[in-house]
Design brief:
Blueprint (H helix, E strand, L loop, with lengths): L1 H19 L3 H6 L4 E6 L7 H11 L5 H9 L3 E9 L2 E10 L7 E2 L25 E2 L2 E2 L8 E6 L6 E6 L12 E5 L5 E5 L2 H10 L17 H9 L24 H4 L29 E2 L6 E2 L2
Antiparallel strand pairs: 1-2, 2-3, 4-7, 5-6, 7-8, 8-9, 9-10, 11-12
Length: 295
């Protein structure tokens, strides 16, 4: 009887993990070369911790984020890739726990008197205050910014409350990306929308830079070309030339040996040859599979 109950509990647990990760673990495990797909299970956050966070930061957590924390106190899913005999850490999806959902913008560079803070960046007045009609976050008291994902040091995904008033509880928020140059880029209007965006991009390196004017680094684009995000039809996933980042590399072929070349077709006796002297085709230089056509 105990064995049956354990199997039932194990099945229920697997269904729970499947729903929480939106089935992305199965997708990753089916990709060629992907290994060590690891999801770090966590206990739900306590309601008193959520209330304490709201009182401390004078903000109301959005309902979807509250439900998320009452299900699991944070999220971490990583995966590696095997290239020949080398193991490379590639994918990483992170949502900070409620304790690490810290306020960004009031820390000083050095713990010395009269030192500048990150809020001083808003005093230059040279950057635009809006993006696609939305007011950009500010590092001063006009916005309350909290770090959702440290992005492995390549920026920060933040939960942002805009148009804040000192002493009043902030309620409306959305999700923005702060790049390493401290420029803001709008991502989604809700936590749920961002969560789906993170899952569908498979946690690929620098995927948030797909929503910036300059895009990810060349190396990150190579990973995206090999393990194509599930949202590759989105307009933001265009390279600098405006071409879609389609997966032209077939992983099934990339991890196999070289295919044998098919034997040349026999010519009919009556067929005329278009080759010039020496058996080389006109307009070609070299021989065999390495011949190069003149342009």
């Amino acid at each position: 009887m105990r064995g049956m109950e354990e199997l039932k509990d194990e099945k229920t647990h697997k269904v729970f993990i499947e729903r929480l990760t939106l089935g992305v673990t199965r997708v990753l495990e089916s990709l060629p070369g992907v290994i060590d797909v690891r999801f770090a299970e966590r206990e739900p956050a306590e309601k008193r911790c959520l209330l304490s966070w709201e009182q401390k930061n004078v903000c109301i957590l959005p309902e979807d984020l509250r439900d998320f924390y009452l299900t699991t106190d944070g999220f971490t899913l990583t995966w590696n890739s095997k290239l020949e005999n080398e193991y490379v850490s590639v994918g990483c999806m992170v949502i900070n726990s409620i304790v690490k959902l810290r306020h960004l913008g009031q820390s000083t560079v050095f713990s010395l008197p009269n030192t500048p803070t990150i809020a001083d960046l808003d005093s230059d007045g040279e950057t635009e205050d809006t993006e696609n009609g939305r007011e950009k976050p500010h590092f001063d008291s006009r916005s309350r910014i909290f770090e959702l994902d440290p992005c492995a040091g390549n920026g920060k995904v933040c939960l942002v409350y805009n148009n804040c008033t000192e002493g009043e509880v902030a309620q409306q928020c959305d999700v923005w990306f702060l790049d390493r140059s401290l420029y803001w880029h709008y991502l989604t209007p809700s936590f749920t929308a961002y969560y789906r965006l993170m899952i569908t991009h498979l946690g690929l390196p620098e995927w948030q830079y797909s929503f910036t004017p300059y895009g990810p680094s060349p190396q990150a684009k190579q990973w995206a070309a090999l393990y194509q995000p599930l949202t590759f039809h989105c307009d933001p996933l265009l390279d600098s030339a405006g071409e879609p980042l389609l997966n032209k590399l077939d992983p099934a072929k990339a991890f196999k040996g070289k295919a044998k070349q098919p034997p040349p077709k026999k010519k009919n006796p009556g067929q005329t040859s278009s080759t010039g002297p020496g058996g080389l085709s006109k307009g070609h230089v070299g021989s065999g599979r390495y011949s190069v056509q003149k342009r």
